[in-house]
Amino acid sequence: xxxxxxxxxxxxxxxxxxxxxxxxxxxxxxxxxxxxxxxxxxxxxxxxxxxxxxxxxxxxxxxxxxxxxxxxxxxxxxxxxxxxxxxxxxxxxxxxxxxxxxxxxxxxxxxxxxxxxxxxxxxxxxxxxxxxxxxxxxxxxxxxxxxxxxxx
Amino acid sequence: xxxxxxxxxxxxxxxxxxxxxxxxxxxxxxxxxxxxxxxxxxxxxxxxxxxxxxxxxxxxxxxxxxxxxxxxxxxxxxxxxxxxxxxxxxxxxxxxxxxxxxxxxxxxxxxxxxxxxxxxxxxxxxxxxxxxxxxxxxxxxxxxxxxxxxxxxxxxxxxxxxxxxxxxxxxxxxxxxxxxxxxxxxxxxxxxxxxxxxxxxxxxxxxxxxxxxxxxxxx
Lengths: 152, 219
Prior knowledge:
The complex is a heterodimer of chains A (152) and B (219).
Chain A: H1 3-35, H2 41-51, H3 53-63, H4 74-106, H5 109-115, H6 118-130, H7 132-145
Chain B: H1 5-16, H2 18-35, H3 46-63, H4 65-69, H5 84-122, H6 128-138, H7 140-150, H8 157-190, H9 196-206, H10 208-218
């Protein structure tokens, strides 16, 4: 029994067994909070992140392995790689998402869901409840599309 | 004048029970690890003190080479203990430590730390410290072998073991800890607690050797 094996297996168990299982719970909480006045986006993102624990670690490993292991600038370069990836890959995607949200809000859909028509929000929450397994499977499918990881 | 047989045998006895005492030091280090947090430890605290004692016990025969280096005669500690009752003490102590303390008591201690992990979670604290302590206790025999494998047999053996331990920590344990940090960051994000410091820590865990070079470059 090696201490190192223990930590590696504990990390694997948490990241590849427990977090993906909790993902479904977090999506369920997101739907419940969507009905009420509470903030729900955080739980939805947490559900996605639970499915991406291995991917996030692999991304950090890629960010931190672009220089030699004993390069004094390695931490700085790793941080810069992280910032580069966030600004040039993640933020444009987030920008596209915000445009979609903006168009939906302009067309009145957001208004009906969040403020004006609570009946629409309840119907959407009901649909979410009925489709919860499908939502988790869809999230898993999205995550699987990125299995290739971050490349430099 | 020749060293009396009884004194030579007492010296051999003390040196030959050192591996068993090193195991006991590691058990005490494991308990101290939980007292100091479990997932972290104090520099200069009980954990580092017991680890250092474990290393000293593993490398004491090599540390005695310093006396030879200084020109002082050191009686040979190798070979069997000639006095039968002293040999019996050595055998009994080693058997007691290996079969009672390490093979049974430490396992039970580790099991208690798993219970403690559940109780930690019940109280709203992090269970990770107790889980890591349980793993440390279960891994004591292999950790002792690891310490022995790092020693070079020279009079610098104690420092060589510390050096090897640092390399092992930076090269093997820290990358695994980076995964735990990512998992912790996701948990923190889900429960509305600060998560960015854990991502920064994960990057640092993956680049410990480079951070060491960075500090050296700054000097």
